[in-house]
Design a protein that fits this description.
- The strands form 2 sheets. Strands 1, 2, 3, 6 and 7 form a 5-stranded antiparallel sheet that branches. A two-stranded antiparallel sheet has the order 4-5.
- The protein has 2 helices and 7 strands, in the order αβββββββα.
- By secondary structure, it is mainly β.
- Helices cover 14% and strands 36% of the residues.
């Protein structure tokens, strides 16, 4: 999590591959990936919490165009969905209030509103 480089070899191309890789990030606390359906497409959901007092900058995932950095104690909800063979990552982050990791209601509404275009 402290290195701003992509894995070599890269994570496999399936939803399960990415969910397992993120769930296994050292130094983070992650829920077990759970099965979800988003707009009729199957996927996995995982909640990842960054350490509260890291000794470095933190990174959770990267693509060819973006590296996702996170702040101390930040919580990320990740929905990873297979949309007609393309792996899609839907992400939102927040900072917990007190001891509760509950996401803000407006984030729940955003996740519930996700729809994919159909031909």
């Amino acid at each position: 999590p402290c290195i701003n480089v992509r894995l070599d070899p890269p994570v496999g191309g399936t939803v399960d591959d990415l969910a397992a890789a993120i769930a296994g990030l050292q130094g983070f606390v992650a829920t077990t990936p759970t099965d979800i359906t988003v707009d009729g497409y199957l996927g996995k959901e995982i909640i990842v919490t960054a350490p509260a007092a890291p000794s470095c900058e933190l990174f959770t995932w990267a693509t060819a165009n973006r590296t996702n950095g996170v702040g101390p104690g930040e919580v990320n909800r990740l929905n990873i969905v297979d949309v007609d063979g393309a792996r899609v990552l839907i992400a939102a982050d927040w900072y917990p209030v007190g001891q509760s990791l509950d996401e803000p209601p407006e984030l729940k509404r955003v996740f519930e509103s996700v729809h994919f275009p159909r031909d």
